[in-house]
Design a protein that fits this description.
717 residues; alpha+beta; Multidrug efflux transporter AcrB transmembrane fold; 3 domains; four-stranded antiparallel β-sheet; 23 helices; elongated
Length: 717
């Protein structure tokens, strides 16, 4: 299987935002950059600059690099007898204090270098690598090459930091491999422990585990067969299957063992037939509602969420079929475990279940009123939920990846860019002045650290042409003068310097906006402000689109909220319809969804209070929670109805349901909780938080099914 860590691929490729990004990269080259920052108190010494100049040359020689921007490659526009000339910012390494002072003055006067290539305190310099658009970049290889260079500058008074989207992708891939090495063995190990604790029988361990392994093999095999790449979010699939795929087997084995203890005279074949007949419909319902919950992710706008929903559904379907075929066949062939055949009692557990049921059915009104009050308080946290898609927030606050990104953001304004595409006669003073006006608006936003375009270059040429008089740092009045400046620049400097800002025919240009490391909510607000400003003050046929990786992160926010809303609504409606049809009761369907509604409010309220972000992982929470959590309600209600049909009074029927189905429900929930708990070992914060929230939500679903549901049924009769 192949690994895909590109955030851009999370979105549908036919989206206008993605198409604009592809168009921009086709004209101006890739928008991805790598930034290396070197900090030192001895930066401005001859030996240090000579060493860093050699480092810049080495960086430029990397096959992935198109161009490396640094003070060693930067140019300076200076007045000359011919109008202006393009000279190197550093023509030679300074050797005395006077030369260093002159260099500092040139840097401070150079808008392209100051604050972008040299920090404001003059203690750090940056190397900005522009990647070749025509080369298939191997993120891991690039990261290793950068790390090799960085290792040479660490120590001896140097602090070196490096960041950039390709490096972040490589680290995501690296951390994914680490997580998978943890998730599978630890997940299977804790599942074995849980099954052994629950059943105290090798059969109770082996058969559910066999189903889990077979469902994982099927799912991964289909991924490889259809070329579905392994993504950041897809890491959840094996853990989901470890946690969920054994649920049906657990119910079958729990009822099988219970039948052995309560009716030992029954033949093995008759016992298995009785168990499967009794459980067939509730297991079918549990399976179909779980699959419906996962399939609701197909309504999600994120491509990764759709893939997870589809693949997890396939794995669960396989587990469902195998549980109803392989497990009964195996039980027929295998000997009954001695611990079960010996009639071992679970008196304490039975007493606990009866005491639990008595408490919640004896005070139903108080229980429900108290639950509603607590739920309302927790629900107040929902508006506090923060939506964020910044890959930097995948990592813990002290992780080197996050430290590097935040340090570069602090020193040089980050490594994330967006571009405003401009179409028309780029040499026209009218369009150039509009570009400057728009740039000034963009600069007014605190998230923006730098804005540059061909219009800025023209103003510098005009200023230099007039002897450095700052009053001429404006766009020339005529198109011909603009054309002459550009021609003069091509004679004196390197015309390819402008390729990043304008195309060869001067019909397309881009305004490059560098954004500091801030929340993607703020980036999204910036993009919306920018688009609204263009619509109100400029010609949208000239400023055609706002694009770049920052826009991808920004638009993901809207998609996460919409996807969460759609999948939540669809999954709960599907579950309600299925349970209503099966129980042939509108009230039955409503009661089935009550524990789910309670769990949903509790989880999202907790997210708000605990400041857990809604991101690509947690966005799938509601569908999974509903799909899994409804199982407990279905099993409880189905068996309760059976006991009522046998003529038992309501309270007696609830007690019998708790005794005979409660154990299977609890074992089932424990297996899900234990399975998802391994996500707490993740190196990624979103995955870790997802694991915590799933554990919490399933616990709430279990509490709802075995506490709130009995109280509600007693109160409403």
């Amino acid at each position: 299987m192949q690994v895909d860590t590109n955030i851009k691929n999370m979105l549908p490729q036919d989206m206008p935002t993605i198409q604009a990004l592809d168009k921009m990269e086709a004209v101006f080259g890739g928008s991805e950059i790598v930034v290396i920052a070197v900090k030192s108190d001895q930066l401005w010494e001859t030996g240090t600059l000579e060493y860093l100049s050699a480092l810049a040359d080495t960086l430029s020689e990397l096959p992935e690099m198109d161009k490396v921007m640094s003070i060693f490659s930067a140019f300076n526009l200076e007045s000359s007898d011919d109008g202006f000339s393009v000279n190197d910012l550093i023509e030679s390494i300074p050797e005395n204090p006077e030369e260093f002072a002159a260099l500092e003055a040139r840097i401070r006067d150079n808008d392209l270098a100051m604050g972008t290539l040299v920090s404001e305190d003059f203690k750090s310099i940056a190397f900005v690598g522009l990647l070749r658009p025509s080369v298939e970049i191997n993120d891991d290889q690039l990261r290793l090459e950068i790390e090799r260079l960085v290792a040479k500058t660490q120590g001896d008074g140097y602090e070196t930091y490096y960041a950039g989207l390709p490096l972040t992708r490589s680290f995501v891939s690296l951390h994914m491999a680490t997580d998978m090495r943890r998730f599978l063995p630890y997940g299977i190990f804790v599942m074995i422990l849980m099954l052994a604790f629950s059943f105290r029988s090798w059969m109770g361990v082996f058969l559910p585990l066999l189903i889990v392994i077979m469902s994982i093999i099927w799912t991964f095999g289909l991924m490889a067969l259809f070329g579905i790449k392994f993504t950041f979010v897809a890491m959840l699939i094996p853990v989901m299957l470890i946690a969920i795929a054994n649920d049906y087997g657990i119910h079958i084995i729990a009822h099988y063992f219970e039948s052995i203890r309560t009716n030992p005279a029954l033949s093995k074949k008759d016992r298995i037939i009785k168990v499967i007949t009794s459980l067939g419909m509730p297991i079918f319902l549990a399976g179909i509602t779980t699959i419906a919950g996962f399939l609701s992710l197909l309504s999600h706008v994120l491509v990764d969420a759709q893939k997870v929903g589809l693949l997890a559904s396939v794995g669960i379907f396989v587990a469902f079929i195998l549980s109803l075929t392989v497990i009964p066949a195996a039980m027929l062939l295998l000997r009954i475990p001695l611990t079960v055949a010996g009639g071992a009692k679970e008196v304490r557990f039975d007493k606990f279940l009866l005491g639990w049921t008595h408490f919640f059915t004896s005070h139903p009104r108080k229980i429900l009123v108290g639950s509603v009050i607590i739920l309302l308080i927790i629900g107040l946290g929902i508006p506090k939920i923060v939506v964020d898609t910044d890959p930097n927030h995948y990592y813990k606050i002290d992780d080197p990846v996050r430290v590097n990104n935040e340090k570069i953001g602090e020193l040089f304004g980050g490594s994330t860019q967006l571009s405003i595409l401009v179409e028309g006669d780029i040499k026209s003073p009218e369009i150039l002045n509009q570009m400057l006006s728009l740039s000034e608006f963009v600069k007014s936003h605190p998230q923006v650290s730098d804005v540059i375009s061909i219009a800025d270059m023209i103003t510098r040429m005009n200023e230099a042409f007039h002897g450095g008089d700052s009053t001429y740092k404006v766009i020339p009045a005529s198109r011909n003068l603009v054309a002459q400046y550009l021609l003069l620049y091509s004679f004196s400097g390197d015309a390819s310097d402008l390729d990043r800002y304008v195309d060869y025919d001067y019909q397309q240009a881009q305004i490059i906006v560098r954004i500091n490391r801030v929340s993607t909510t703020e980036i999204n607000n910036l993009i919306h402000d920018l688009e609204a400003y263009i619509a109100d003050h400029h010609d949208q046929t000239v400023f055609t689109s706002v694009t770049g990786f920052a826009t991808v992160m920004g638009i993901l926010i809207d998609f996460l909220v919409k996807g969460q809303t759609y999948s939540l609504a669809i999954s709960i409606i599907l579950v309600f319809l299925i349970t209503t049809l099966v129980f042939r009761s509108f009230i039955g369907g409503l009661i089935s969804t009550t524990p789910l509604a309670m769990a949903i409010i509790s989880v999202f309220g907790l997210m708000g209070y605990a400041k857990i972000e809604l991101n690509a992982a947690t966005a799938m929470l509601s569908s999974i929670m509903i799909g899994v959590g409804v199982d407990y309600t279905i099993h409880f209600l189905w068996h309760l109805r059976d006991y009522l049909d046998e003529g038992l009074e309501l309270n007696d029927a609830i007690h019998q349901t708790m005794l005979h189905s409660g154990k299977g429900i609890i074992y089932n929930a424990l297996s899900v909780v234990v399975g998802f708990a391994v996500l707490l070992l993740s190196t990624f914060l979103p995955i870790e938080f997802f694991g915590f929230l799933i554990v919490f939500s399933i616990s709430m679903c279990l509490f709802g099914a075995l506490a709130i549901l009995p109280a509600l049924i007693v109160l409403t009769k």
